[in-house]
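Sharing a chain and its predicted structure for anyone who wants a worked example. Both blocks are below, sequence first, tokens second.
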Amino acid sequence: MIETLLKKNEYKSLEILSKEALEGIFHGKHRSILHGFSSEFKEFKSYEQGENPRNIDWKLFGKTDKLYTKTYQDETNIKVYFILDISSSMYFPMDTKEKINKAIQIIATLATILQKQKDLFGVIFMSDDLTFESKLGHSLAHLKYIYQALEQLVLENTTKKKTGYPDLIKGKIELLGSKKKIYFISDLMFTETENATFIQSMLEIKALKNEIEILYILDPSEITIQNSSSNYMNIEDKETDEVLSIHIDNYKDTLEKMHELKFENLISKLTQKGIKTHVISVEQPLINLVKQII
């Protein structure tokens, strides 16, 4: 029932959509599904009779022949940033805006989960400039504020918003701080130079003990060719309005090669560095995509 509702094309408010998605994910169960950083080790102390033996450090016992337990600092709540690419390519196809719509639905659903868990979350929107940044918060009012900011994205003029995402992220590294979970949401339409900048930024952010997940938003029409009566296809750059006419056979090869290069030059390199990337196809139901991420 819920997946049928979420497959419909008519627009729903993010609040309604997120609540419907949560019903399908939780099925009435109340459990934490987005976790913060584990409790941090503080010090060893001598084991005392009656304490839980599971806390004994047996490796230390083997070296010292004495019983010690580990003590921990209080577990920290998760702090999450969603950093969304809102360049023009994210609004493809322009008639349905499937990529940006699916991206904001996912963010809204995850933010709703975090609010229920009383964890801090915030959003940052970037195109060729940093266009919006919220503070971290966990109140219901903060969640509604995030809903409004996300919904406003669909109404904005998206003409010629170039991708400055990698460079802007590089400038935000220090401000993001440490020990956060950061979702980067983008169609990864970068140049070779931007690929290198993006990878380096991810490594620097990870080095600050942040946990990173990349949501690669993909519309199937970007990698497959539709039936056409013409022998030529026009490729339009939505960020510059440049149009290139290309033979349909070459067009197919070009699409496949571009997709292969994106995995070879960017996604596979990030994976090798321990940075998780989720391929988010807009044709999949919202529930399936959220389950894939959490």
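Comments welcome. The chain has a mean pLDDT of 79.
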